[in-house]
Write a structure and sequence with these properties.
This protein has 2 domains: about 30 residues; about 160 residues, no CATH class. The protein is globular, with a radius of gyration of 20 Å. By secondary structure, the protein is of the alpha+beta class. The N terminus is likely disordered. The relative contact order is 0.19. A 7-stranded mixed β-sheet has the order 7-8-4-3-2-1-9. Helices cover about 20% and strands about 25% of the residues.
Length: about 200
């Protein structure tokens, strides 16, 4: 009886120990269900869950957390649903006439409990580089629009496409705002009105 009890205890402990790293792995690599091509992109970009790695690779934080509590639907505004974007990290080295699925120009983080959690990637192109809407993943980038002041100059007219690779978005996988993203109240949060569209 003592032998059975010891074996059972050892087996239970072993199963428990095996379950711990497995649970951790799920937490680290989890996210919304995605088509195979986007799941591959997410896997390739997973290293940027650590924002320090992103900074080392040339992504610069715009500091402010951006949300659009009222969305946008008026004439001349981007048709945003109410929600947040988060904190944008921009890599100027990736801005150019071609888009690369593995080199998004922007990474987007949500402040959660004192940490930055990676929630989306954004493909971004200034209108000075392309007068026509570029395309990636079979989808045209949205715009043209003004820069998102104060984190980007209003004069930075551009096209962009947000893809919520790490956090499910009730507004849509490629919608600009995510109704579940929250920006904490504070000096570096900007509750904004909808971005204005511009004419080419």
């Amino acid at each position: 009886m003592r032998h059975f009890s010891a074996t059972t205890t050892a087996l239970a402990f072993g199963l428990f120990a095996c379950a711990l790293p497995m649970g951790t792995a799920v937490a680290q690599t989890g996210g919304p269900a995605l088509p195979a091509n986007l799941a591959a992109v997410r896997n390739a970009l997973d290293k940027y869950r650590d924002p320090i790695v992103a900074v080392h690779d040339g992504y610069l934080s715009t500091v402010g957390c951006v949300d659009y509590p009222k969305g946008g639907s008026a004439m001349g505004e981007m048709a945003y649903k109410p929600g947040g974007m988060g904190v944008h990290f921009l890599n100027p080295a990736f801005i150019g006439p071609k888009l690369d699925s593995l080199k998004p120009q922007v990474l987007i983080y949500e402040p959660v409990g004192g940490r930055l959690e990676l929630v989306a990637a954004e493909w971004f192109m200034p209108t000075a580089v392309s007068k026509e809407a570029p395309m990636i993943f079979g989808t045209k980038l949205e715009g043209p629009m003004e820069g998102h002041a104060p984190v980007l100059p209003v004069e930075l007219h551009h096209w962009d496409l947000h893809v919520w690779l790490w956090k499910a978005n009730p507004n849509g996988l490629m919608h600009s705002t995510n109704s579940t993203v929250k920006c904490p109240d504070g000096p570096y949060t900007f509750h904004m009105g909808a971005t204005k569209m511009v004419k080419q």
